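Archive transcription. Copying these from loose printouts into the bound notebook so they stop getting lost. Printout 1 of 2:
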Amino acid sequence: MVPISVLVSGRGSNLEAILDAVDKKCITKGQVKVVISNKPGSSGLDIAKKHKVPGITIDDKGFPKKSWEYDQKTVTALKSYGITAGDGLVLMAGYFRILSDEFIEAFRHRIMNVHPALLPAFPGLEAQKQALDHGTKVAGCTVHFAEKTVDAGPIILQASVPVGEEDTVESLSARILREEHRIYPEAVRLFTEGKLKVEGRRVHVLP
């Protein structure tokens, strides 16, 4: 059983999709051991409580957005719940921090993130607005392994979403989010079943 931690900052909708997948036995070889928020009062902690998963806060007030000093606190908490670089999986789900290089290196290819764009297009903030401003006809979302460069790690799964003439940032974001809720749990399932193999920049899905 792969021990999983989910890092959250806000509403936690992807967290809920993952916990629902565990509850419904769509994910059977992974167990969420702890939800960690960097913000006190995050609604993600309420979702964790609803699913009877331990939730803790490691307040990042006073720390830079990227800080190994802060991340060391997170790593210590992960270890206390049995999540190590050797066998654990760390999920970023609306986590508004940039992981330090040391954290990325320690958990290499064991940290996943979801981004609301078809990477490598539109990395960074406001990806949906970037897509609309660019006039793209197809947007989407990407689940990838985290790397030292933000939104640049090996791609695990992607889903496309057509962009309509009348789309707004809000309407496009809502449709993309539905796809995030579908492919993120699937990526977790594949990882926990040992079906992902990373070779360079490619992630192979094994039968």
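Printout 2 of 2:
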Amino acid sequence: MRLGILISGRGSNFEAIASTIARRRLDAEIAIVISNRSNAAGLEIARERGIPVRVIPSQGLDREAYDRLLVDELRTHEVELVCLAGFMRLLSAHFVRAFPDRVLNIHPSLLPAFPGLDAQRQALDHGVRITGCTVHFVDEFLDSGPILIQSAVPVLDTDTVETLSARILAQEHAIYPKAVQYLVEGRVTIEGRRVLIREDEPQ
């Protein structure tokens, strides 16, 4: 399966996916990495790995006009699945319709709790004992698409935003490649808001 990765910053989840592919534990190919910021650190990581990159600046463009440029670039590279990896833009309905049930995002909370920015700080401020991360399908609303996979992370009494974020990030790196593999293997069915994952056939 040909992947298109969208980033705005360091792209650590992109790197986790790329590393899993390199270890032959994920049967996919990253066709293109696109960023809306020319200084995104993840672009250099992609270049070092020999992955094609493209910068499409978003400044001065409305959401749909920008997304049309993204869709054109992704289609040029025959992308089958789009993975958001710290891409700091809301996608338009046009983009979502272009890749129906083929856009994934990862978010540092157990959605639907704590959507949007600063999810780790939100968790600490609310005093929850457990938070985590979520891989979900993307719709045109903020962090609201059907949930594919989640991983729980306990919140410690001594946690700061930084320490909690680091432990959540480690789980993100574990579950995002796994979520992609479920789709690669054709094991995922969406029924309304429920995502069903077919178990492996018994040996």
